[in-house]
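Session log. Operator J.P. requested a structure for one protein chain; no other inputs attached. Running the standard single-chain path with token output.
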Amino acid sequence: MDTIIKRDGTRVAFDSQRIERSIRLLRRFAPDYEFRTTVAPTLAFAELLRIAWCVSGARRFVLQPFFCSGEGTLLDPRFERQAAMTPRELCRVWERIRHRFPDGGVRGVSCPRALNSGGTSG
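Structure written below.
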């Protein structure tokens, strides 16, 4: 078992071997595929980089902004009160990982080719 660290510092265990097996199956047998990650409010920047590394070289990788309708439809209502990454923050993540993928981006957001992030790249 592996762990991820959420934005609040909480650690969550998951079975990375099952995920890796699914990734291998998709790469091998799917004629056209896309890996995508909905960037829930609890996902930390470092975890997004780790996810991108795991699917590096995929045909397409997309970050999806997290949206909440506020109508009580989420399985975990705590997400309704947590701030999600802004489009600019999502574009900064994409800028850091885009070299790993021939196609992809942030769904529904037009990211500039390069972002000024306060003196550092991406």
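Operator note: Strands lie at 2-5, 11-14, 35-39, 60-65, 103-106.
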